[in-house]
């Protein structure tokens, strides 16, 4: 009968809706409106805290962004990098993470305190870090985008598990691609995420070899623009103070823009891992495109950031919701 047909049709539609819902949630089960009923103001609370912190120091921007990247590439985006260990053997204590600026940690700690006041025990530190990473990009003049939420905080944070998971300043394009592919990110995503180097700085010892001991035939890396190389030598004399730094983007160091790629084209990539993106024929066309088209870069960066935010997430009953971002609950 017609009524039975309608019922069957309704059941089928409902099944399809459920299937779509399950498939949609299967990708780490993250949802933009995850806290819609449990902590609806979480994003505005985090944004307010991050804005205040940004007003105190612009280092907040690169520090928070780098913290998010370093977190996601080790154990997934689960705030494992925030754990403090009395024995100095947590993730943040590894050699690769010692250069993470305190302002990034402080940003998340302050945002977590504000969120706990509004909705105690509901929002993970991992989600707060993901929101804060988006907010600092916007504060620096970059594009806004929606952040998927529902991550839970991880229960493992070991310095011994970091090595080999984060890009070193001397890596090749193939090594970069392999490392990013392990996290479900393509070469295109990797080049877009490298654009975060439009902000922040690097310590002199990370690129001193390009100025003073590049090769037997050339003390200075010939791929560096000579005037830029001289500028770097002035900033970083040989055997410079270990705390000495140079801006990753010497032109607009505090603005989120596509100038990083224009610098690469002009021989002003600070790290070997930056310069290789332009000198390698496989990646050069993307760099040139991003240098000429800020809209293309912004679009690629947003896509890559959203993909990065899904790496190795814990959801459902995995992990926990930490009360204090620096310590496991138990």
Automatic annotation (TrEMBL):
Organism field: Escallonia rubra
Protein known as: Peroxidase
Gene Ontology CC: one annotated term: extracellular region
GO biological processes: hydrogen peroxide catabolic process; response to oxidative stress
Binding site for Ca(2+) 2: 198, 249, 252, 257
Protein's UniProt keywords contain Electron transport: no
One GO MF term attached to the UniProt entry: heme binding
Positions of the record's site feature: Transition state stabilizer: 66
Residues that bind substrate: 167
Cofactor entry: heme b; Ca(2+)
InterPro entries: Haem_peroxidase, Haem_peroxidase_sf, Peroxidase_pln, Peroxidases_AS, Peroxidases_heam-ligand_BS, Secretory_peroxidase
Keyword Secreted included in the entry's annotation: yes
Amino-acid positions noted as binding Ca(2+) 1 in the UniProt annotation, renumbered to this chain: 71, 74, 76, 78, 80, 91
Sequence ranges assigned to domain Plant heme peroxidase family profile in this UniProt record: 29-329
UniProt binding sites for heme b: 197
Annotated Gene3D superfamilies: 1.10.520.10, Peroxidase, domain 2
Catalytic class of the enzyme: oxidoreductase
CDD domains for this protein: secretory_peroxidase
Cofactor notes: Binds 1 heme b (iron(II)-protoporphyrin IX) group per subunit.
Family: Belongs to the peroxidase family. Ascorbate peroxidase subfamily. Belongs to the peroxidase family. Classical plant (class III) peroxidase subfamily.
């Amino acid at each position: 009968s017609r009524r039975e047909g309608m019922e069957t049709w309704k059941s089928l539609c409902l099944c399809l809706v459920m299937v779509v819902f399950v498939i949609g949630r299967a990708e780490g089960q993250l949802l933009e409106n995850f806290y819609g009923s449990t902590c609806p103001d979480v994003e505005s609370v985090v944004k307010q805290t991050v804005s205040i912190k940004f007003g105190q120091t612009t280092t907040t921007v690169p520090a928070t962004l780098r913290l998010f990247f370093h977190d996601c590439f080790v154990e997934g985006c689960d705030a494992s990098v925030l754990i403090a260990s009395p024995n100095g053997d947590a993730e943040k204590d590894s050699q690769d993470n010692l250069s993470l600026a305190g302002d990034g940690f402080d940003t998340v700690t302050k945002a977590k305190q504000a969120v706990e006041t509004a909705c105690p025990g509901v929002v993970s530190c991992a989600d707060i870090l993901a929101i804060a990473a988006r907010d600092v990009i916007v504060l620096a003049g970059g594009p806004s985008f929606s952040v998927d939420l529902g991550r839970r905080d991880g229960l493992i944070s070991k310095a011994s598990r970091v090595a080999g998971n984060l890009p070193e300043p001397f890596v090749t394009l193939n090594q970069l691609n392999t490392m990013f592919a392990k996290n479900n990110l393509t070469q295109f995503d990797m080049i877009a995420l490298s654009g975060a180097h439009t902000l922040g700085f690097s310590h002199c010892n990370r690129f001193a070899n390009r100025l003073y001991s590049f090769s037997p035939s050339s003390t200075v890396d010939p791929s560096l623009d000579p005037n830029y190389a001289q500028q770097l030598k002035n900033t970083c004399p040989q055997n410079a103070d270990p705390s000495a730094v140079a801006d990753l983007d010497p032109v607009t160091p505090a603005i989120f823009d596509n100038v990083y790629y224009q610098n690469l084209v002009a021989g002003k990539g600070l790290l070997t891992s930056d310069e290789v993106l332009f000198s390698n024929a496989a990646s050069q066309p993307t760099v040139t495109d991003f240098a000429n088209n800020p809209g293309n870069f912004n679009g690629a960066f947003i896509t890559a950031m959203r993909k990065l935010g899904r790496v190795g997430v814990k959801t459902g009953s995995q992990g926990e919701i930490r009360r204090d971002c620096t310590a496991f609950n138990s």
